[in-house]
Structure formats: structure tokens, C-alpha cells
Amino acid sequence: MSGPRFTVTLSPEAERDYDELLLYGLLNWGEQQMLRYQESLDRAIEHLGDFPEIGPQRDDLCARCRLLPVEHHALYYRIEADAIQVVRILHERADAARHLPR
User: Fold this and answer.
1) pTM (whole model) above 0.85
2) Which of 15, 35, 75, 82 lies 20 to 30 Å from 22 when distance is taken between CA atoms?
3) What are the φ and ψ backbone dihedral angles of 72, each rounded to 5 degrees?
């Protein structure tokens, strides 16, 4: 039997990141590639609800943040009492410390 499932939400900034990276993918790589990437992101976000501690702690970048790499991006998230909040979705080359809340 598995443990309780966490609800996963995206912060307004993470929602914007998600939309922008999919639009970029559509415009630069085409619909099929964008849909494949969207599926990878959605699967990772859903996976967080079942395994919230999967990503390593990254307090050096953001208080109580964890990191989950997804292809060329990273989900930065926090575990709350019974929920996960994805704080940002950033490209692997982005200066995460500059974009994450302290």
C-alpha cells in the first residue's frame, strides 16, 4: 500500500515558465517536439505527488527548495504540509539563484 498522495500546484511564476517554455518549443522545434516535452514535464510534475522527496534539497539556492531535473529544465519545488508547490521551472543553464525566491 502506498502512502498519501501530495497535491502538486504551480506558483504563478512556474505557470508562466511552463507556458513560455512550451511556446518556445512550439515556435522553434514544432508541435510534435513540444508535445513530447510537455508530456515529460507533466509526468515529472505528477511524479512529485507520489515521491515528494525524490529531488535533492537545494537550500543554497532557495529556502526549503528541492530540485528535479527534467530533460533540459529543472523543477524547483517546496514540500508543504500535504502539498508540493513548484516554485519555478528553469532551463538547466539559467542562473537559478537569480530567479528563485530566497
Assistant:
1) yes
2) 82
3) -100, 15
Nearest 5°: phi and psi at 33? -65, -40
Residue 11: which of 95, 97, 96, 84 has the closest Cα?
Answer: 84
Distances (CA, A) of 67 to 30, 55, 61, 75, 92: 28, 5, 10, 6, 11
| Domains observed in the chain | 7-94 (3.30.2310.20)
By three-state DSSP, how is residue 26 classified? helix
- Residue 51, all three cell numbers: 515521491
Q: What is the pLDDT of residues 38-50, one digit of tens each?
A: 999 999 999 999 9
